[in-house]
Design a protein that fits this description.
alpha/beta, 4-stranded parallel β-sheet, 5-stranded parallel β-sheet, Rossmann fold
């Protein structure tokens, strides 16, 4: 990643505070300078579909607000006072201490201070999440792995047949995470699995985390984020894992997902096939209902696809829209600062689903470079759909093309339980894209049309009737 990037799509590693807030009953304690925590919140909540602060978030997050005194003399004393104060006034099942740049530069021992209190029986862990240690994706893994290593203990569990821990999208960094995780849980439960989803409203909170060692297997539904976590759990508890690298959007990918998971879990094939048949029948009935619209507006619809999102959403959405809706891929820009060691496998997983993606997958975090490359590829075309963020909205406006929201930052929309994962999620994404055309494309603007029709007058002669109807200009 370049030292300076234009149009950033993520925060620093301290963004892991949002991962803590996504766990029901967990509370962050931040050891950083004033403003760091709030900037994370503004990007990951207010500019991510207005997702809300979460319980204990926003201005309620406990923070040392380290100043010059802590830089000169160290901030460990203040951190201890902040921890003790948080336990007195905030109700929580687990507290996670996260360090910022100031604390890690001066050498404050955040992890061992948290360990001191943990040894007294306090439910607390400590992690180092200084901004220079990575992005919010790295911070997410750091928090999850820290809880596993410091809070769960080393004793292996008793595996329960059919029980699975799911690791997938990054809370808040993926603006649709709540609905997506609920959809994943519902899909897996539909084939008979017991699911610990760990984050969001579908999770039981800390009790699920304590249950992690008892899983039959762990399931990673992500290109790379979370891979270190399932490998840690395999090493710590001997729990095997299945890595599914593409988020399942739409019928084809979701059916493939259920078959692979079912096979790995030892679920009877007949049960999986029955569920898939029911869901696909419903999915394609809904999808076929859009044929009239596609036929009527075929001359005006975009067909060139440019996707700007992280590797989880960028891959899943692009594969679905290409394979099942009929878009022609022109560029897939993956913005989550993917390490080089993962890039080849991610590219291969996308191309294996459609060879048309060959040469179109780009790993780039700089939005300015992305938009310049898109402009070069467009060559004046006005038949493009940009799937991306608020930044891509401006690109669409300036080039006369269409845009739908998929990734951060998203300051112009409100997201509650929306999801694009699974069978229903694929239908929702198609609805979103084609509805947005009427908002962003000038030739879909609403206008009033006056129509003259002949009619018979009372005296038997002819006269013209002028009627008014609302229509969309073509």
């Amino acid at each position: 990643m370049s030292p300076v990037i234009e149009q950033p799509r993520f925060t620093c590693a301290l963004g892991g505070q949002q991962t803590v807030l996504a766990i029901p009953g967990a509370r962050p304690i931040v050891h950083a300078g004033p403003g760091c925590s709030m900037k994370i919140m503004e990007f990951s909540s207010m500019n991510a579909g207005r997702q809300g602060e979460g319980c204990g978030g926003g201005t309620h997050i406990s923070c040392t607000n380290a100043y010059e005194q802590e830089v000169v003399f160290g901030g460990e004393k203040k951190l201890r006072a902040t921890i003790e104060g948080a336990f007195k006034v905030i109700k929580g099942d687990l507290f996670v201490v996260l360090s910022g740049c100031t604390a890690d530069i001066v050498g404050d021992d955040t992890i061992n201070i948290a360990k001191e209190y943990a040894e007294k029986g306090w439910p607390i862990v400590g992690v180092e999440t200084a901004g220079f240690k990575g992005t919010s994706y790295d911070g997410h893994e750091t928090v999850v792995n820290g809880i596993i290593e410091q809070f769960l203990g080393d004793t292996p569990g008793t595996p329960r047949e059919g029980m699975v821990n799911v690791f997938s999208v990054v809370p808040f960094q993926n603006p649709y995470w709540r609905g997506d995780l609920e959809n994943l849980k519902s899909l897996l439960r539909s084939i008979g699995l017991e699911v610990n989803i760990l984050f969001g409203y579908g999770s039981k909170g800390i009790s699920e985390w304590k249950d992690i060692p008892n899983a039959q297997f762990n399931l990673l539904v992500s290109p790379w984020v979370g891979l270190s976590t399932v490998q840690l759990l395999e090493q710590k508890y001997g729990t095997p894992y299945l890595h599914y690298p593409v988020l399942p959007f739409g019928a084809q990918e979701t059916s493939r997902f259920l078959r692979e998971v079912g096979l790995y879990a030892g679920i009877p094939k007949a049960r999986i096939d029955e569920r898939i048949e029911t869901e696909e029948k419903r999915f394609y009935r809904y999808l076929s209902s859009i044929v009239d619209f596609l036929s009527e507006y075929r001359s005006n619809l975009p067909w060139e696809l440019y996707t700007v999102a992280d590797s989880a959403y960028g891959a899943g959405a692009s594969v679905f829209l290409t394979n099942e809706i009929g878009f022609i891929p022109k560029g897939v820009y993956l913005v989550d600062d993917v390490a080089e060691r993962f890039q080849e496998a991610i590219t291969a997983s996308i191309i294996s689903r459609n060879a048309d993606f060959e040469g179109l997958v780009h790993f780039e975090s700089d939005g300015g470079l992305i938009q310049q490359d898109i402009r070069d590829r467009l060559q004046g075309s006005r038949k493009a759909l940009f799937l991306g963020s608020g930044w891509e909205k401006f690109l669409a406006q300036s080039t006369g093309n269409s845009c739908s929201f998929l990734s951060l930052p998203l300051p112009e929309t409100v997201i509650l339980g929306k999801s694009f994962i699974g069978y229903s999620g694929g239908i929702s994404l198609a609805e979103e894209i084609y509805s947005d055309l009427f908002k962003t494309k000038a030739h879909f603007s609403r206008q009033t049309v006056f129509i003259e029709t002949p009619a018979t007058a009372p005296d038997g002669g002819n006269r013209a009737l002028v009627t008014r109807s609302n229509a969309y200009a073509l």
